[in-house]
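INFO  loader      accepted 1 record
INFO  loader      residues=100
INFO  predictor   begin
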Amino acid sequence: MVSTEMVERVEAALDEIRPALQMDGGDVELVDIDDDGLVRLRLVGACHGCPMSQFTLQMGIEHTLKARIPEVAGVQAVNYDDEPIAGPIQIFIRDDEDSQ
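INFO  predictor   done
INFO  writer      dumping tokens
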């Protein structure tokens, strides 16, 4: 069982991240932290189903949590049934020369 202190530290770190998500109409909910340090989160609002949500999760949320809380081993998004959301990150970069 994960300590109450770790849950509070994760929630505090998420509270620092939330304003940026909320500016775009989204948010994040802490679902669970397992004994191995995997933090399970649910992206809600505009973040739920957003094509950039996996990027936000890994490059923003996971990076921040790991930097502030060394016990965090990783972050996993779950859907409303608490099932993991998996899939590769796809980033599309437009080459301005090709679009002219």
